[in-house]
């Protein structure tokens, strides 16, 4: 049974956040998608996000957080930095403070709209080693936001303990696997996945392990 409440979903139009969006639509009476423009290298995700939200007929908010681009140096905010993930090192695509900023903004919007449920598609099983994708960080920030705004927010992380293959299978169970055709994963910003960057490789592995063909690479949109 759906909760007769509204939830905000942090939505990048990637595979994980789109799965969270569909999950939330089944769990809550109303869902709002929250996207961020930080002048990211793969800004095409903003275009794909509109396509997905239009198809699902849900409200979408896009917040300009270009200050992130001004204060951080990484492969997602600088085109002259190579996208790479060397063994034993933090990937060059780590954006310092990204989820901290995103969740804080989401909480501020939730406060103004009297919403308590916030959903984010972080995952600490098959992930890139980002510090702000860990469950301990989410729980800590949840408490901090509650104290900062005197609210009882609940940050939901439905994918936190799932492998990429399990996330694919969850989308299949939710009966919206075809929606992943419109998602964007490639860090290089290419609609046809480069199949070389860390994000593309993780996605490729997930579909292979799940034994399901990726709708994004199986044919034309």
What does this structure look like?
With 221 residues, the chain is α/β, with parallel strands linked by helices. It has one domain (3-210): 3-Layer(aba) Sandwich (Rossmann fold), CATH 3.40.50.620. It has seven helices and five strands; from the N terminus they run E-H-E-H-E-H-H-E-H-E-H-H. It has helices at residues 15-27, 44-56, 67-71, 98-113, 135-149, 164-173, 198-210, and strands at 3-10, 28-37, 59-64, 117-119, 154-156. Strand 4, helix 5 and strand 5 (154-156) form a beta-alpha-beta unit. The longest helix has 16 residues, at 98-113.
The CATH homologous superfamily name equals HUPs
- The portion of residues forming beta strands comes to 5-15%
Number of strands: 5
Low-pLDDT runs of 5+ residues are none
* Order of helical and strand elements: EHEHEHHEHEHH
State the main characteristics:
221 residues, alpha/beta, Rossmann fold
Outline of the structure:
This protein has helices spanning 15-27, 44-56, 67-71, 98-113, 135-149, 164-173, 198-210; strands at 3-10, 28-37, 59-64, 117-119, 154-156. With 221 residues, it is an alpha/beta fold. It has a 5-stranded parallel beta sheet with strand order 3-2-1-4-5, with helices on both faces.
């Amino acid at each position: 049974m759906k909760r007769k409440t509204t939830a905000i979903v942090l939505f990048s139009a990637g595979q994980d956040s789109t799965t969270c969006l569909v999950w939330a639509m089944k769990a809550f009476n109303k869902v709002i998608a929250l996207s961020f423009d930080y002048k990211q290298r793969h800004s095409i995700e903003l275009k794909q996000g509109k396509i997905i939200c239009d198809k699902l007929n849900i409200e979408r908010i896009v917040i300009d957080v270009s200050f992130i681009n001004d204060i951080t140096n990484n492969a997602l905010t600088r085109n002259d930095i190579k996208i790479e993930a060397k063994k034993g090192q933090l990937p060059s695509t780590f954006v310092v403070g990204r989820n901290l900023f995103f969740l804080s903004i989401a909480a501020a919007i939730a406060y103004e709209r009297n919403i308590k449920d916030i959903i984010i598609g972080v995952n600490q099983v098959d992930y890139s080693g980002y510090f702000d994708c860990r469950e301990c960080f989410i729980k800590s920030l949840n408490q901090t936001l509650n104290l900062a705004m005197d609210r009882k927010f609940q940050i939901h992380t439905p994918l936190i303990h799932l492998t990429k293959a399990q996330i694919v299978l969850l989308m299949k169970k939710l009966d919206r696997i075809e929606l992943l055709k419109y998602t964007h994963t490639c860090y290089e910003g290419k609609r046809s996945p480069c199949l070389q960057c860390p994000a593309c490789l993780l996605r490729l592995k997930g579909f292979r392990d799940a034994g399901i063909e990726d709708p994004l690479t199986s044919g034309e949109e």
